Amino acid sequence: MTQTKQIPLNFLGRLQQQGHWLLYFVLALVWLGTLGFRHLIPSDEGRYAEIAREMLVSGNWLVPKYNDYLYFEKPPLHLWMTALAFKLFGLGEWQARLWSGLTSLFGIFFFSYTARKVWGARVGQCTAMILASSPLWILGGHFNSLDMGMAFFMGATLCSLLLAWEAPQGTKSQQYWMLLCWASMALAVLSKGLIGVVLPGAVLIVYSVTSWDWKCWTQMLWIKGLGLFFLLCAPWFILISIEHPAFLHFFFIHEHFERFTTNEHARVAPWHFFITLICVGLIPWLWQLIMANVQILTFRFKLPLNSPSSKTLWLCFIWFVVILGFFSASHSKLPGYIIPVIPALAMMIAISIDHGFTLASTKSKLFPVAWLWQVSLFLLIFLVGLTQISLIENSGETYEAESYLAYAKAIRLALIIGVIGCILSLSFYKRKMLSLGIYSATFLFVTLTAGLSHEHVGRLLSGIEIAQQVKPLLKPSTPLYSVETLEHTLPFYLEHPSIMVNFEDELAFGIGQEPKKWISRTADWMQEWQANPHQDAFAILTQPKYHELTQQAFPMQLIAQDHLRVIVRKPLASQ
């Protein structure tokens, strides 16, 4: 009798475990399968795709170049991985976003694994659901920029440290996790710069002071760790500095110190910018986010940090506070900067949902009520949103009317998915994990539907239409001028860098290093354009500049145009 009961229980346990793997597999298919649904948009997506393309074509993987100008603003790891994706799979949108997609997806798996090992299986599952449904993490994972790779390696730094603390003292397992922590910091530096090591160091200092836990410094494997750190990240910095001595001042002083302390980069935002962004980026879990922080502070000041689990939780909180404070104090603010706090917040929220720092019996009674209120609130928000679609339909300029009408239809579909998902989640509210899973899947599909449907508007921004018209006519040796403008996506789609004319912008450093590669005055370009009537040439113009040159009867042949830019060709003498 005992055996007949044991077999079904084992079978159900294995089925449940396999079901988790199946969900992860479906998540991977959805996550990676939607990377190519949009064309690249300015500026980050086009810029980093073009730098990687030029790296692949030139064969120079040491020196990043943008439009054939030296580009030292960022380290090369993201560019290397994107160039590798182009080499393996060809040029394309999903290939350009593959590194962001892989790091964000693997981040969900690794951070969930960490939470499971440190705080238990349900916390691990909740962490995965929170990350997979957080709009900031979803959109960051489907956007070609350096931020997601940086966020993943910084998150891996935190999680490796947590796992090293969790491992038995002095074991090989602890050493491996600690070395992975150092390796992750090195790769974070190669992804975005010094913040990859400065911020984790600041976090550990603040953690030690606030917890009076100095023993953690003795577990860092300083000799092996620093050796591994410099072995991974130092060679590129050394080699690029030898070949281009100007790199050191530009990268470390201009791109780090001056970016943080001055408004030179014109990315100013109010001090609460990142607080607002976190609330929006984690909006499905906003109530749990607030409660988690309140509970952690209450727990910290009422009880001593006398257990490994409480210390690791406090480290996650300090990680969040230090990074938020650092970027909030900076004079340069962009949305992607704050993504590294999302993994720590996801684990904090997951712990709050599962444990709540209260008695389990009390929590089990409180959860259904709070969950009913939260899901009902978002159900109401989605229903109200359906009545406000006309605001999107009437957005944009006149030439964008059709695009915004199509975009409004996609937003309507996203809101309908939200309504259906919330209703399903409410219907299973007594089954905690199932209700959470439905709710998480709902926001994943709502965010993907709304975000990827931006293609209706983004297609025009990408310039793909005119690029397709011009590319067959443009030979590799033909000059392509960019007159008083910098197009971030056209060079990638044309597979051809452009020569800057009377416009520097972010290429100022590269132009300063190689001034002969650009034309400082539009009048000089006009003379060069007309100097050799037998040399073919193309130029990218803004609409106002094109009309100005037309009024001057400047010799040029219209090849393609849209509402944002124009591409012209020099009339040849034989024509």
From TrEMBL:
Signal peptide: none annotated. It is a multi-pass membrane protein. It holds the Pfam family Arnt_C. It is found in: Cell membrane. The chain crosses the membrane at residues 21-41, 96-115, 176-209, 221-242, 271-291, 312-331, 337-357, 369-392, 404-426, 433-452. Its main location: membrane. Residues 74-238 form the Glycosyltransferase RgtA/B/C/D-like domain. GO terms for molecular function: pentosyltransferase activity. It comes from the Bacteria. Coiled coil: none annotated. Residues 466-570 form the Aminoarabinose transferase C-terminal domain. Keywords: Cell membrane, Glycosyltransferase, Membrane, Transferase, Transmembrane, Transmembrane helix. This is 4-amino-4-deoxy-L-arabinose transferase.
